[in-house]
C-alpha cells in the first residue's frame, strides 16, 4: 500500500546535463540503474528547437553529477531531412541496453492541404518506435522500426500518432504508449504491448485510465515494481491549454498494467516565483529504491528546459520494494 506525502518538494536548482550541441538544455529523461551506475537517456531541446531533439546518453555514480564517459552523442539521429527523433526510453537486460525512441516524418505540401481541409492538421503524418541496442553505450546497432502509426492512413479522420513509449522488462518486454491527434485536447489514449525479444510485438491493447477532472493525459513513464505492481508518472496539461503547458505530474498505480488508478492530488507541480521550473513541467522518470521514489523531472522557465532531481521524504512502499529499472550489473 502506498504511503505518500505529496506533492514532492521541487528541486531548488536543475542538474547540469551536458548536451551535444552545447546548450545543456534537456528534456524527456528516462533512467536505469545498473549496479551502482545510473544511465540517463534524454534529448536536448534548446529553446524548444525540435531539430536537436536527438536521443542522447549520460551516466552518473550518484544520480546528480552527469558525464558522457566517452559516449558520442547523439546516439540516434534522423535519417532524412523530413524526419525528426524524440521521446527516448531505455531498458537494461542480459548485458544489453535497449533504447526505444520515436521517429517522425513530416507531411509534404499535399498532406498539409488535405489535413487543413479536414481541420485536423498536424505537421507530422507518421510516427514509429525505433529500437537500437548496445552493450557498452558507445557502439549501437542500426535502428529497427518495431511499431508504427500513420502514413497514408493519417489522411483519414481518427488516426492517432504515437508519443512517449515506456518500456519495462521482467522476463518479457512490456510497452505502454500514448496515441494522439496532436498537441491539443483530442482525448489521448493509452495502449499496451508485449514482446519476448523487443523486436516482434503483440497487438496493442487499450488501457483503462481516468484522469483527474480537467486534466489531459500526455507523456508517461511506467515501471514494474518488485512486489508485482506497476507505477506510472503522468505529465498532464489542462483541457483549456495544450501539451506545452504541462503544470502537474500525477502518480498512477496498477495491478496488471491495463487498469490504472490515478491519484487525484498531483505528485509534483510547477514552482512559484522565478524558479527554474515555474513555467512548466514535462515527461519525467523515476526509480523506487528502499521504498522511496527518486524523481528526475523536466522543468521550464523562460523557454529554457532543464532536468531536476527530487526524492520523497518518506517511503511509498515497504523498504524492500524497488522498481525493476534498478538492476544488478552483469
3D structure, described in words:
With 330 residues, the protein is mainly beta. It has a single domain, classed as Tachylectin-2, Chain A, CATH 2.115.10.20. It has one helix at 109-117; strands at residues 26-34, 37-44, 56-60, 83-93, 96-106, 124-134, 144-150, 161-169, 173-180, 189-195, 205-206, 215-224, 230-238, 248-254, 260-262, 268-269, 280-289, 292-301, 304-311, 326-327. Strands 12, 13, 14, 15 and 16 form a five-stranded antiparallel β-sheet that branches. It has a four-stranded mixed β-sheet with strand order 3-2-1-20, with no helix packed on it. Strands 4-5-6-7 form a four-stranded antiparallel β-sheet, with no helix packed on it. Strand 18 (292-301) and strand 19 form a beta hairpin. The radius of gyration is 19 Å and the shape is globular.
Strand and helix layout:
Elements: E1 26-34, E2 37-44, E3 56-60, E4 83-93, E5 96-106, H1 109-117, E6 124-134, E7 144-150, E8 161-169, E9 173-180, E10 189-195, E11 205-206, E12 215-224, E13 230-238, E14 248-254, E15 260-262, E16 268-269, E17 280-289, E18 292-301, E19 304-311, E20 326-327
What key phrases describe this protein's structure?
1 helix, single chain, Tachylectin-2, Chain A, 330 residues, globular
- What is the CATH topology assignment? Tachylectin-2, Chain A
| Number of E strands | 20
- CATH homologous superfamily designation: Glycosyl hydrolase domain, family 43
Provide the β-strand percentage band. over 45%
Helix content: under 10%
Please describe the biggest sheet, giving its number of strands, its sense, and whether it closes into a barrel: 5 strands, antiparallel
From the N-terminal CA to the C-terminal CA, the straight-line distance is 32 Å
Order of helices and strands: EEEEEHEEEEEEEEEEEEEEE
The CATH architecture classification is 5 Propeller
Rg (C-alpha, Å): 19 Å
- Write down the CATH class: Mainly Beta
User: Spans of 5+ residues with little confidence (pLDDT < 50)?
Assistant: 114-122, 153-157
Shape: globular
Amino acid at each position: 500500500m502506498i504511503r505518500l506525502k505529496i506533492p514532492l518538494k521541487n528541486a531548488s536548482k536543475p542538474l547540469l546535463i551536458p548536451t551535444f550541441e552545447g546548450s545543456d538544455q534537456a528534456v524527456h529523461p528516462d533512467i536505469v540503474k545498473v549496479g551502482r551506475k545510473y544511465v540517463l537517456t534524454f534529448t536536448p531541446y534548446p529553446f524548444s528547437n525540435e531539430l536537436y531533439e536527438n536521443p542522447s546518453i549520460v551516466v552518473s555514480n550518484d544520480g546528480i553529477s552527469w558525464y558522457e564517459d566517452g559516449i558520442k552523442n547523439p546516439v540516434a539521429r534522423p535519417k532524412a531531412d523530413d524526419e525528426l527523433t524524440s521521446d527516448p526510453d531505455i531498458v537494461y537486460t542480459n548485458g544489453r541496453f535497449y533504447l526505444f525512441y520515436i521517429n517522425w516524418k513530416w507531411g509534404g505540401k499535399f498532406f498539409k492541404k488535405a489535413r487543413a481541409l479536414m481541420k485536423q492538421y498536424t505537421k507530422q503524418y507518421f510516427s514509429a518506435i525505433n529500437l537500437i541496442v548496445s552493450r557498452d553505450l558507445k557502439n549501437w546497432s542500426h535502428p529497427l522500426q518495431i511499431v508504427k502509426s500513420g502514413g497514408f492512413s493519417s489522411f483519414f479522420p481518427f488516426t492517432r500518432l504515437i508519443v512517449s513509449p515506456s518500456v519495462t522488462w521482467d522476463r518479457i518486454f512490456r510497452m505502454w504508449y500514448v496515441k494522439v491527434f496532436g498537441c491539443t485536447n483530442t482525448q489521448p489514449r493509452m495502449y499496451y504491448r508485449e514482446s519476448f525479444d523487443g523486436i516482434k510485438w503483440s497487438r496493442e491493447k487499450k488501457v483503462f485510465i481516468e484522469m483527474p477532472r480537467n486534466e489531459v493525459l500526455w507523456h508517461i513513464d511506467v515501471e514494474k515494481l518488485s512486489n508485482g505492481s506497476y507505477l506510472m508518472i503522468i505529465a498532464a496539461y489542462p483541457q483549456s491549454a495544450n501539451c506545452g503547458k504541462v503544470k502537474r505530474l500525477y502518480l498512477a498505480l496498477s495491478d496488471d498494467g491495463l487498469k490504472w488508478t490515478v491519484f487525484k492530488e498531483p505528485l509534483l507541480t510547477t514552482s512559484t516565483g522565478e524558479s527554474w521550473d515555474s513555467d512548466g513541467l514535462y515527461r519525467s522518470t523515476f526509480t523506487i529504491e528502499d521504498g522511496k521514489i527518486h524523481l528526475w523531472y523536466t522543468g521550464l522557465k523562460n523557454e529554457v528546459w532543464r532536468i531536476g532531481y527530487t526524492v520523497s521524504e518518506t517511503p511509498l512502499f515497504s523498504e524492500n520494494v524497488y522498481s525493476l529499472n534498478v538492476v544488478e550489473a552483469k
